[in-house]
Write a structure and sequence with these properties.
The protein has eleven helices and ten strands. With 297 residues, it is α/β, with parallel strands linked by helices.
């Protein structure tokens, strides 16, 4: 797909400030002024940004957010195929990182359209660097599920993760999330809550998850990024009987077997299948013993 000259356009993903507008990448202003199309998560925020930078957009401005992302992507791909330079910006940080963008990037790549980026601020990397936790290996988990049961399930899945973990969270759910993390990861697991990064009231609260949960119960405002220490290597090798015992303890506490197996596997750093097989083998052995007992009766 291309215009009459055989040339396709370029999709530009541009990072925007996560707080302080002075952090805007130098290239951002030039791209905003010259793009043929500017796709913005919130056109009002875009207007405030251009005013703060002292510039004006000359291209067509369209909204591109979660609600219309699927419907608007073909339109933007068509513009790119016609030779347009399309700039994608979100409210803060890099597009496609817990923000709109992935669908458009995938669709553009599928049509052999060039995709490039204007690197910019990132709440993930900023929080990670400020956390005072290990940064040599980390993973980004985004937002946790809103429902309590689903949130606990997701946390159990990553309970054995050795890398430092980074999460986004809404301020009104922070206390519940930290309490759930303390329950699943352990109250002593180190973490950092980074609030309002690069803004006037920036705050980084570091400490054990249990203490942070108590602190957050009083109410926290602003944009939140949570960084949690990875699980430590215990060097403990668990035999099949111990794996089964731990699953049984969790089941007796009210967890479903599937969830209990996933949690024990994460704790032990083992594939879920290995724990599942141990539970099935124990169940079969118990049934065989019962049958033999009946035969002797």
């Amino acid at each position: 797909m291309a215009d009459v000259t055989g040339t396709t356009g370029t999709l530009v993903l541009a990072g925007t400030p996560i707080g302080d507008v002075a952090d805007a990448p130098p290239r951002l202003a030039a791209e905003l002024e010259t793009a043929d199309v500017v796709a913005a998560e919130d056109t009002r925020r875009l207007r405030r940004l251009t005013q703060a930078l002292g510039i004006h957009t000359t291209g067509r401005v369209v909204s591109y957010f979660e609600g219309n992302e699927s419907a608007r992507t073909p339109e933007l791909v068509e513009a790119l195929a016609g030779g347009a330079r399309v700039l994608l910006v979100t409210d803060a940080g890099m597009p496609s990182v817990s923000d709109p963008g992935y669908r458009l990037v995938a669709a553009a790549v599928e049509q052999d359209i060039k995709v490039t980026a204007v690197p910019g601020p990132s709440a993930v990397l900023t929080a990670l660097a400020l956390s005072a936790l290990p940064v040599d290996r980390f993973c980004f988990e985004g937002f946790l599920p809103r429902k309590a049961g689903e949130r606990l399930g997701k946390l159990r899945e990553v309970a054995g993760e050795r890398r430092t973990m980074v999460f986004f969270e809404a301020p009104h759910r922070l206390d519940d999330t930290l309490a759930a993390m303390a329950e699943v990861f352990g109250a002593d697991r180190r973490a950092a809550v980074c609030r309002e990064l690069t803004k006037t009231y920036e705050e980084v609260k570091r400490g054990p998850l249990g203490d942070l949960a108590v602190w957050a119960a009083e109410g926290v405002r602003g944009e939140i990024t949570v960084v949690v220490e990875g699980a430590t290597e215990t060097g403990e090798e668990l035999d099949a009987d111990e794996l089964v015992r731990r699953v049984q303890v969790r089941e007796e506490a009210g967890e479903r077997r599937k969830e209990a197996i996933a949690a024990v596997a994460a704790e032990a750093g083992l594939p879920k299948r290995e724990v599942f097989d141990a539970v099935v083998a124990a169940k079969n052995a118990a049934r065989t013993g019962q049958d033999q007992g009946k035969g002797l009766a």
